[in-house]
Design brief:
By secondary structure, this protein is of the alpha+beta class. The chain has three domains: 30 residues; 121 residues, NADH Oxidase; 178 residues, NADH Oxidase (3-Layer(aba) Sandwich), CATH 3.40.109. The chain is 48% helix and 15% strand. It contains 16 helices and eleven strands. The strands form three sheets. A five-stranded mixed β-sheet has the order 3-4-2-1-11. Strands 5-8-10-9 form a four-stranded antiparallel β-sheet, with helices on both faces. Helix 8 packs antiparallel against helix 11. Bound molecules: flavin mononucleotide. The site of flavin mononucleotide has 17 residues, from helix 4 and strand 9.
Length: 370
């Protein structure tokens, strides 16, 4: 008869098996071929200046893809023709739970558009933009102009959503004036909240949005699908919300899913409250209209704002909960004095060290045939 294990022996055996499995997992995550930092740097390599014709446009597209996008879904497709690039939505990458009307999808295309025009300008091409209307895409026609490489262009490779706590330091008035003076697009406005009381007002709606989202199963399920819980997953897809960029440890998917699914809504809201309170303030972006063109213009202005902040070594990160839950958005609009303008985006800003950078799919994966 084999001897039965005592309870203590059983627990010890379980702990050793678990320890060995966790050790093997961590060793694998540290494997030299899973080098996510190297990949993040590779996708952000400087623009190839010598490239000509179509390959030059491929480089502009690579810079466009370095833009922000909701859940890093990269919901874009680019069509290159002579002297023209079209940016199309990739509906297979839309986010029905968090973004049921594709508002943030079109904002993401606007972010990519801003980077694209800056890259083209650095190579000596001015952009003429045709916004979506009768067409369901954005078209950019290029005309030769003087090459210009400003601070925004130089910041494209370094901009990131820095989701860590900031250092509570205020941003000086002169710097803040430089931030708030970026050129805005037609119908788009910036709103600054940098006093402790105004930040607390904003926080009320971030909290309300968080509580609603983290009680919504569809939202959680979509979030889980877009989180890349470890390097292996992140490098396989080159998209999504990579744990390292969110400041959370790499874990296997089965474990990460359980943690996210059982996240307490109030703890999530408290964590975001601490992040906002560690920041120098918040900026909202609003639009007078609610259509694809207004969303694209919002994206352009966000990207411009984030590049200006980056060029001043100021970090920023989105807290879009108040704009993503319809009822909360209405209350946010009224309570924060937006008037008729619709809040579209909200970000916090301040000082912090950079975090690991997110990944992007290759240019070949986002260019479609004419
Ligand atoms: C329209 C839009 C909404 C976003 N909402 C959030 C958000 O609520 N919270 C957040 O942490 N990041 C948000 N992001 C940031 C993306 O997750 C981020 O851009 C993406 O993961 C790529 O990372 P990067 O911006 O650091 O390059 C949003 C981005 C866009 C364009």
């Amino acid at each position: 008869m084999p001897k039965r294990l005592s309870r203590v022996q059983f627990v010890k055996l379980g702990a050793s098996v678990f320890g060995a499995a966790a050790g093997a997992y961590l060793l694998y995550e540290g494997a030299p071929w899973l080098n996510s930092r190297k990949e993040a740097a590779r996708v952000r390599r400087p623009l190839e200046p010598a490239s000509k014709g179509t390959s030059r446009m491929h480089e502009w597209v690579r810079y466009a893809t370095l833009a922000a996008s909701g859940h890093n879904a990269q919901p874009w497709k680019f069509r290159i023709e002579e002297n023209t690039i079209q940016i199309h939505p990739d509906s297979a990458r839309h986010l029905p739970a968090v973004d049921p009307i594709d508002r943030e999808l079109w904002i993401s295309l606007g972010c990519a558009l801003e980077n694209l025009t800056l890259a083209a300008r650095s190579a000596g091409f001015e952009s003429e933009i045709i916004y979506p209307g009768s067409n369901d895409w954005i078209q950019i026609d290029f005309n030769q102009a003087k090459p210009e490489e400003g601070a925004h262009f130089a910041s494209i490779r370094h901009r990131q959503n820095t989701r860590s706590p900031y250092d509570h330091q205020k941003v000086g008035a002169a710097e803040l004036a430089k931030v708030m003076s970026i050129p805005v697009e037609h119908g788009i406005e910036l709103h600054l909240f940098d006093s402790p009381s105004s930040t607390e007002n904003v926080l009320e709606y971030v909290t309300a949005g968080n509580l609603s989202q983290f009680r919504d199963r569809a939202f959680i399920q979509e979030l889980v699908e877009w989180i890349r819980f470890d390097k292996r997953e992140a490098l396989a897809s080159m998209d999504g919300l990579f744990s390292l960029c969110m400041g959370t440890p790499a874990v296997p998917r089965w474990l990460g899913q359980q943690v996210v699914r059982h996240m307490d809504p109030q703890s999530q809201a408290d964590a975001d409250a601490n992040l906002l309170r560690s920041s120098a303030g918040a900026i909202a972006i609003s639009s007078t209209k609610e259509d694809k063109t207004a969303w694209v213009r919002t994206g352009q202005v966000y990207q411009r704002l984030a590049l200006r902040l980056t060029s001043l070594n100021i970090k920023s990160a989105f807290l879009n909960q108040p704009n993503e839950v319809a009822e909360v958005r209405k209350q946010f609009q009224t309570a924060l004095g937006f008037g008729d303008a619709l809040p579209q985006l909200l970000l916090r800003f301040g000082y912090a060290n950079p975090m690991p950078s997110s990944l992007r799919r290759s240019v070949d994966d986002v260019i479609v045939a004419v």
